[in-house]
Design goal:
This protein is an all-beta fold. It contains no helices and eleven strands.
Length: 115
């Protein structure tokens, strides 16, 4: 089992920045990749950014150039640095970990960007 705890969400004005953190615990050795997803009201959950064990990353088009996913292996923590935030970035952001047999999800953290 893997437990994920997100933090760092909040209210920010358009153009501002936030850094989300996701601390993983439990069967860390089973994790192949981690990512951040978001779900806005009335919309499907979508991938924002993804990082695999090799360190390779990928981003949804709307996040490219503004968001950066990174990890601190010593702290078992993945970060999402979000800059130049826009109102359309408003959503609940979820941390995800892909294990060998299943995926794990955090409880989500709300990000609200005011115009």
């Amino acid at each position: 089992q893997v437990q994920l705890v997100e933090s760092g969400g909040g209210l920010v004005q358009a153009g501002g920045s936030l850094r989300l953190s996701c601390a993983a615990s439990g069967s860390i050795f089973s994790i192949n990749a981690m990512g951040w997803y978001r779900q806005a009201p009335g919309k499907q959950r979508e991938l924002v950014a993804h990082i695999i064990t090799s360190g390779n990353t990928n981003y949804t088009d709307s996040a490219k150039g503004r968001f950066t996913i990174s990890r601190d292996n010593a702290k078992n923590t993945v970060y999402l640095q979000m800059n130049s935030l826009k109102p359309e970035d408003t959503a609940v952001y979820y941390c995800n970990a892909d294990g060998q047999l299943r995926s794990y999800w955090g409880q989500g953290t709300q990000v609200t960007v005011s115009s």
